[in-house]
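seq:
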Amino acid sequence: MRKWHAGLALGLAFTVPVLAQQAPAAGQLPLLIGQGAGGTSYSVPIQTLLFFTALSFLPAVVLMMTGFTRIVIVLSLLRQAMGTQAAPPNQVVIGLSLFLTLFVMGPTLDKVYAEAYEPYSRNAIAFDEALSRAEQPMRQFMLKQTRQSDFALFARLAKLPSETTAETAPMRVLIPAFATSELKSAFQIGFMIFIPFLVIDIVVSSVLMSLGMMMLSPVLVALPFKLMLFVLADGWNLLLGSLAASFIT
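struct:
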């Protein structure tokens, strides 16, 4: 028994130094797995960290690099023009805006999936190359919606060379120019939505004043007429169809 314990202790004495040389130090993770034909491959912990870091920027990407801003502002202005206060509720407005954004961005997202995600999932390209490929379809979408005057404004503020075009401009210039154009488009559409409902408000207010019913709220009386006009004109089809068609793809 003593010989068996001594042999075990001797074996451990020789094994521990070998394991200590092969194992990474405590608190350290391997950053790279290797560099193959597709480029640098990161270890799973680093990929997970990069994924969650990118996920934290997802709300900003949805707001500033897609058509979500235009859609949600138009739907919010519609609710204000009709005077329905909380109908449809915010959850419905946000949900409808998200799914309509997915519909509008469908061709662009398909390109990102085919040109960036699929090759990266097969380890055919590196993570940096996948990001570069994913940027191109998004850039093309934003360029089609961005007004030249808005791009010129931010290019001048960024002090870019005069020969810089929208196609070669950095994303830090293109994104605010795109967001500004989206805000302009949203308010232009909202102005057109407000006109018929404003006419109803004026007519109702004039009728109430002529009848001497000044204590009766014109907003309350005009609301049924606004709803009737919107339903009879098939307003949802007109509005959502026009919103989807307003994006140049």
